[in-house]
Amino acid sequence: MFVDAAVLMLLMTMFGAGLYLGRVGSFLCAATFTWWLNRSITFRGLHSGSMVEQWVRFLGVNAVGGLVNFGVYALLVSQVATAARFPVIGIAAGSLCGLGFNFVFSRALVFRAG
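User: That's the sequence. What structure does it adopt?
Assistant: Structure tokens below.
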């Protein structure tokens, strides 16, 4: 979540990205960071295939969780003025909603012994 929020703020302030396009970029950065943490800590030793193959599988599996995450974010920033002013609120809510789904399916489909 912190990587997501930091990258979104960077993209918005430094590059003029909007609330939605900026979130696509920030989500990809956050998902890559999460993959690396999962590979290094949570699911250490449960690697099959190359790192690139695993990263692509991770992004694919987590795309549904990402859609839930983004949907909650988009709903909040479009309907709640405070969330539009402070997008980190939408990021936090979206992250929590996608977390459970992503963990279960990452464990089952991405990080498994080869």
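Helices lie at 2-15, 21-42, 51-79, 81-85, 88-109.
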